[in-house]
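User: If only I could read backbone structure tokens as easily as an amino acid sequence. Underneath my words sits a plain record pairing an amino acid chain with its backbone structure tokens. This is the protein in question:
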Amino acid sequence: MDYLIDTHAMIWAGAGYRQLSPAAAEAIVDPTNRLLVSAVSAWEFEDLHRRGRLAGSVALDAILDALSLVLVDLPAHVWRVARRLPNLHGDPVDRMLIAHAIHADLTLITADKMIRRYPVRTLW
């Protein structure tokens, strides 16, 4: 199965899985699953790192390699999906990630309860 992994879940998996739910951890380590990282999450990771919010975190490339994550571009027209989303979450990065998952028909691995209120398949 293909999954899109939220930024925090990717960080937690890279740090040793302790904060992940059992279902999320199982999906991430299952070699039959393909784990995708949106370019939106890559940007968010680097922004958090630049602002010092990820002290002690390893580089994004190291996490991508260690977890066999596939970085995927954000399709240009995903904004059309995002504009139709209900106004539940004020974070534009999360809204684009939700739209990306909906557009690509992917299940989003996320602990974010607000994201799970959207019409997107999630796993946690």
